[in-house]
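INFO  loader      accepted 1 record
INFO  loader      residues=202
INFO  predictor   begin
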Amino acid sequence: MKLVGSLTSPYVRKVRVLLAEKQLAHEFLEESAWTAQTTVPRYNPLNKVPALVLDDGNSIYDSAVITEYLDALPGRRFLPAGGSERAVARCHEALGDGLADAGVTIFLERKREAARQDPGWIARQADKVNAAVAALAQGLGGKPFLDGAELGLGDIACGCALFWIEFRLKADFDWRARNPALAAWAQRLEARPSFASTVPRG
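INFO  predictor   done
INFO  writer      dumping tokens
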């Protein structure tokens, strides 16, 4: 397998963490979708990362599709097999992805010329970030991880999203200071080799 993606994307990091947790052999092709010379459209016609190139040469894309595929491969499962437990776990992943979506939208909007930025649109995304953080804190409660005693895919997705928020937008969302339980949960994630080896740079 070959994973195509950037070192800073929270969606790519989610896949990288899962690959590390499952100890799945793969090649990492560092690529940006934002350069004129990008090769990402070879693997995803939408020109978005991550994309996973399978051994037969075909590629699959969208991080949620990739994690679904990877979780079914040999090794420990990070999603429940079915029923309401699986639905809840997938909602946790969707919460993390939506949190990342809102943060990335703020980041990109602020890259526009100041006169063209939409403060109302930024505020709407900030509301989503704050609501997602509150929902995550409530879902975690006093448990070590979202699904209970063991790390699940929801923890990976939400952790990668929150760490990206901290990486790019810390001045706006100091979620650790406001949520001690989330801060402790984050430390448990950061202590894992899968997270420690995928810290974004740049």
